[in-house]
Structure formats: C-alpha cells, structure tokens
Design brief:
By secondary structure, the chain is α+β, with helices and mostly antiparallel strands. It has 14 helices and nine strands.
Length: about 375
C-alpha cells in the first residue's frame, strides 16, 4: 500500500526551514554590515591622519597642481632671465670692444689724412719743379671736412620732430656736422648734452631735447634686468657714417669741378702725370686741352717725366710729339675703320719721323712752311 504524503507537515517544515535560512542570512548580513562600518571608519581615520601629516584639505589637490604649474613657469622664466643676462653681458662686452676699435680706427684715419697731406705737398713741389707756365694748379687737403654723407644721413634717417623739432628749418643737421659721429653717439649714450653744446652749433635746449629723446638702457625692476631699446641700432648706424678728408684741387684759384671739361683736363693731366711712377697711357689729350696748355704745360711735363716713367700717348698734335721730346714715335695709318698698319717708327730726330710729323700733324710741308714764313718775324 502506497505511503500517504503528509502535505501539511511538509509545508510546515519548509516554512520553518525558510525562516531559519532567512534568520541566518540576516545575521550574516548584520555581521558584514558591522565589518563594513569598521572598515569605513578605519579608512576615514587613515585619510584624516594623512591629511594631518600633509596639512592638506579636500581641495588641496587642485591647488597642488596650480602650484606645480606655477613652479614650472617660474623655472622657465628664471632660465630665460639668465639667458637674457648672459646676452646683455655679451652686448656690453661687444660695445666695449667696439669703442676700442673705433679708437683704433680714428688713429688710422688720422694717419691716412697725414699721408694725403704729405702727397698733396709733394705734388705741389713737383708742380713747382717743372715750372708751370699754364694755369697755377694747387692741391690742398682738409682733414675730416668732407661730411656730406654724414649730414645727409642726419637729415634723412636720424633726425625727426621729437629729436630736433623743426630740424630742417633750423639747420640742425648742418650744425651737428662739426661734431664727429662717434662723439655725438657717445654724448647720447652717456646722457651728456653739454658735450654737444661745446662741440657743435646746438644750444643747450636743442642738445637736451636731442639727448632726452633716447632711452637706450631702461631698468626693468620687476624682472631685475636692463632692457635695451631698438634705438641702439640707429645709434650704431649713425656711428658708422663716413667722414672723409676734403681734397680741393684748384686751377688759378678756382675749384676744378666748377671748370669746363677743357679746364678740368688742363688741371688734372699734370697731376695724373706727376702723381705716380707706374706706366701711364693717355688717349688724345688734346681733345680737351687748348693749344697753349698742350704746348706749355703738358709737353714740359712729358719731357721731364720720360726719364722715370713710361708714358704712351696717342695724338694728332705735333706739339706733344716734338715738345714732349718723344723717345719712340710710331706712325700709324688706318686704311679702314677696323684696320691699321705701322708706316714708320723711330725717334723724333729720324728723317722719316720728321717727314711724318710735318705731313700728318702739321697739315703738310706747304702748310708748315707757310706758318714759318708768316710768323718768322714774331718768333725772333
């Protein structure tokens, strides 16, 4: 006979077992919750202790990042400052060396001026030795008086309204020119306007305005460095402006560059011929010289110089050949514009050369004899 299942009893047993399991689970959950609470308390205690050790607050991590970035910026700025100070020291060293070089240059310039003056004196003596019978040629050297480029630079690139007011109308550039560029720049850098008053035509107010317009080296208190203005480049450029000697060549007291082409040639040819000992080639000097200059001065110079200087002259003028006492005459014929041939060569005393001079240069024997006949009485 099949056993009878006790359903109600099983239900009661299951319920009892379920309650037991739930109770056990609740107990274990309570134990875990207690342990979790203990762990959280310990974690809080550790965090509190750590904060006390580092004096940190909950928002300190953000500020810590900010401090790190600030530290990095400071280190970068410090490195840049050190580089700037090193560069500035190099600049000061370079300016000191530049000043020394400018002093050496001034000595060299004075030596050049002295050499030019000596050459001008020697040329004057040579001109006197040959006994000038034409225009009286003189050469003089005025050290440091050629300042045209310097004045132009002052007017066009350096001066402005802030530095000189109405500088063009008041002629500031021309009045500054007697002051050497090196002296002018030094007065500005040293902030000494009185130097300009004593060395130039500027008055005290003008000099103070010019010097006060520059602030080249400016102290930066925040960075602890000296800042350099870009105006320093302008001053260095001004310092390099050329100041040369003024060389005056005069013919009978008149400046050569103011003469006609013939007058300039009359003055310059004797100087060129007397100025050196190297070979000299002159192409048809008679083109810009009058016959008096050719006959009296140039011929005399050529005849005197031929003993110590080789001179080659192409000419159609017999006075140069005869008066210059040519040692070697080469007679050329030009059958066409692109060809030439030598007809004769020799010294001035050879018959064939004499015939060539009379035929080619004097216009033929008949013309030569006619002039001799007409002017015979005046020549005695």
């Amino acid at each position: 006979m099949d056993p009878v299942l006790d359903i109600p009893g099983l239900t009661t047993l299951t319920a009892e077992r379920a309650d037991s399991i739930v109770t056990a689970v609740g107990q274990r959950r309570g134990v875990l919750a207690g342990k979790l609470e203990v762990q959280r308390a310990e974690a809080d205690n550790h965090e509190t202790a750590l904060r006390e050790q580092t004096h940190a607050s909950p928002g300190e991590s953000v500020r810590r990042d900010q401090r790190e970035r600030a530290r990095q910026r400071f280190e970068t700025s410090a490195a840049l400052r050190e580089r700037y100070l090193s560069t500035f020291a190099q600049l000061e060293e370079g300016l000191t060396e530049r000043a020394q070089l400018l002093g050496d240059l001034e000595v060299a310039v004075q030596a050049v001026s002295a050499a030019r003056s000596a050459i001008a004196e020697e040329l004057g003596q040579r001109l006197a030795d040959i006994g000038q019978r034409g225009p009286q040629i003189t050469v003089s050297v005025h050290p440091g008086n050629d300042r045209a480029a310097y004045e132009q630079h002052l007017n066009e690139r350096f001066l402005n309204v802030d530095r000189g007011g109405q500088y063009r109308a008041r002629g500031i550039a021309a009045r500054l020119c007697p002051t050497a560029p090196t002296v002018l720049v030094h007065a500005i850098l040293a902030k000494r306007p009185t130097d300009l008053v004593s060395d130039s035509g500027l008055n005290a107010d003008e000099a103070s305005r010019l010097v006060g317009a520059f602030d080249i080296f400016r102290a930066d208190e925040d960075a602890g460095v000296t800042r350099v203005s870009r105006e320093l480049d302008e001053l260095l450029e001004l310092q390099e402006q050329p100041v040369d000697d003024l060389v005056r060549i005069e013919s009978d007291g008149q400046l050569v560059h103011e003469l006609s082409p013939g007058g300039r040639s009359s003055a310059m040819l004797p100087l060129i011929a007397l100025s050196d000992d190297v070979p000299l080639i002159i192409d048809q000097p008679e083109d810009n010289l009058d016959n008096r200059m050719v006959g009296q001065t140039l011929s005399s110079i050529l005849s005197r110089l031929k003993e110590r200087r080789q001179i080659v002259v192409t000419t159609h003028n017999p006075n140069i050949v005869v008066g210059g006492d040519a040692e070697q005459v080469v007679v050329l014929d030009a059958p066409s514009a692109r060809s030439a041939r030598v007809e004769a060569s020799g010294n001035i005393d050879q018959p064939e050369i004499i015939d060539a001079v009379i035929k080619i240069m004097e216009g033929g024997r008949e013309a030569f004899e006619e002039r001799s006949r007409r002017y015979r009485d005046q020549l005695h």
